[in-house]
Every structure is written in structure tokens, then in C-alpha cells.
Design goal:
Strand content: under 5%
Order of helices and strands: HHHH
Structural class: mainly alpha
Shape: elongated
Largest sheet: none
Distance between the termini: 30 Å
Length: about 130
């Protein structure tokens, strides 16, 4: 497919939903609401910590979550209770549970982002179909 010689091509720049001053004003309102509501602040703090742990998972996990852990005497560290070496213990296969939990939070965050993306796209599809029916 080629463009004819006399044709003009225009690109439409995608603009943000809110201009910068309106975005700042909206952020100030959100911060004021969180300061007034202690439960909301607690929830936002928990979600923030969860996101930070998920993003920094490779740095925070003490062991490889898929590797088998061995005790100093050379035996597999199966079903070890929580200790200084394994803060949440190990599973039947000798894998550290804390490392699996931390690395699993990354997958959870990714699934949430993918769901949000497809939910947003589904809305665009419905609007397009509605417009085509007219």
C-alpha cells in the first residue's frame, strides 16, 4: 500500500486526560481525603508496600524461589519450620516459602495490570460497536 503523491498525512497527538494544573489539584484533593480518613490511609499504605515489594522482588527475595535448599549436613531442607535461615520455612520440595511469596507478588501485580488493560479495551470495543450500529 502506497500513499499518493498529493496526499497529506496527519498525526493526531494523544493528549492527556487532565492538564497538569488540574492533575495537581486532583492529587491535592486525594491527599487531603487520605489524611482525613485513617482507614483509607492504612489501605493506601498497605497497597503501596505491596507494590514496592512486587517491583523490588528480585532484590528482596533471600533465595531463588525455584531452587532446592539444603541443610549444612547436605540433606534437603524439607518441611523446615520458620527459623533464622528460612523466615517462613520451606515446603515439601525444600524451597523457601518467603521467596516464593515475594516473587509471586510480581505475578499478581502483572495479572492485575493485564486485567485492567483488557477491561479498558473491552469498553472501547463496545463503544465502537454502538457507533457502528447507528
Amino acid at each position: 500500500m502506497s500513499i499518493p503523491v498529493g496526499a497529506t498525512v496527519t498525526f493526531v497527538a494523544r493528549r492527556s486526560l487532565l492538564p497538569l494544573p488540574a492533575l495537581r489539584r486532583q492529587m491535592r484533593i486525594q491527599v487531603r481525603i487520605l489524611k482525613a480518613d485513617s482507614f483509607g490511609l492504612a489501605g493506601a499504605t498497605i497497597v503501596g508496600i505491596f507494590v514496592i515489594v512486587a517491583l523490588a522482588a528480585p532484590l528482596l527475595a533471600p533465595y531463588n524461589p525455584y531452587a532446592y535448599q539444603y541443610l549444612p549436613n547436605g540433606t534437603l531442607a524439607r518441611m523446615q519450620p520458620p527459623s533464622a535461615s528460612f523466615l517462613l520455612g520451606t515446603n515439601y520440595y525444600g524451597q523457601d516459602i518467603l521467596s516464593q511469596l515475594i516473587r509471586g507478588s510480581t505475578v499478581t501485580l502483572l495479572v492485575g495490570r493485564i486485567h485492567r488493560l483488557f477491561r479498558h479495551r473491552r469498553g472501547h470495543g463496545r463503544r465502537l460497536l454502538r457507533r457502528l450500529r447507528r
